[in-house]
Description:
single chain; seven-stranded parallel sheet; three-stranded antiparallel sheet
Amino acid sequence: xxxxxxxxxxxxxxxxxxxxxxxxxxxxxxxxxxxxxxxxxxxxxxxxxxxxxxxxxxxxxxxxxxxxxxxxxxxxxxxxxxxxxxxxxxxxxxxxxxxxxxxxxxxxxxxxxxxxxxxxxxxxxxxxxxxxxxxxxxxxxxxxxxxxxxxxxxxxxxxxxxxxxxxxxxxxxxxxxxxxxxxxxxxxxxxxxxxxxxxxxxxxxxxxxxxxxxxxxxxxxxxxxxxxxxxxxxxxxxxxxxxxxxxxxxxxxxxxxxxxxxxxxxxxxxxxxxxxxxxxxxxxxxxxxxxxxxxxxxxxxxxxxxxxxxxxxxxxxxxxxxxxxxxxxxxxxxxxxxxxxx
Length: 342
């Protein structure tokens, strides 16, 4: 379900309370995969100053093949973010479909996404990942910009209990984002290789300059927490004057967070970044069986819980862009304004 032009204009008027230059908040959304896409599809409806900071640890599918063959950053999550920022007009929706299109063949092109090839081609032409993504964004008419979180491709590694079902109590190291995301075991913690990867300076600057920072939803160990494993980016998240929103998933992810309660998501995040605080934890009431425990966990992070109906009306465990936009809009208006858009 997409916003009508009238409702889109109404949401944009509500954020900041007025129209015109400087009236909208500067928002930075961090994550990867479909979770970040859901946030971006919502946020682009309520602000014209939006930056996506995207994980670069993907090693599966088309992204993994291009990464291995050419030594480039994995482009898949960057492509998904750009598609989510495309407008609802014919131009935006056509380009969104084109860059998401995957070739089906019996040859080397099988499984490659058009957008992945386009991004990598511009990287090779321009020699600058950030500038290349800006070019793709202009071509698509994207409502915001997309940045990689690190300047080098990362390998995600996890300590997992019971990755081998025949040894349910054994803790082993599992390597690769695709493998971590599908492990049948219980993820204890994650780290990245190299251990102190360089952050993209533009991503750090965007976080420090933001009015609001949104982390999540998404695959908790493979898309959300990796942002906290880039030291310069974590420092920026801790030091920024922006208010911070942690957006929770609608359901545990099979394998990666199987059996996790909403509050446990907060607890494992805090273990990876104990100095990071949040002002608001956003969750769907239907996905929170124990609201009191979630409120206690949010309070330990320095924040409060905002419950809102953000799930798709068809009952699928996915966010509805319009409902999520309304929830973000309410948070931005009700939890204080910071910066020149006030």
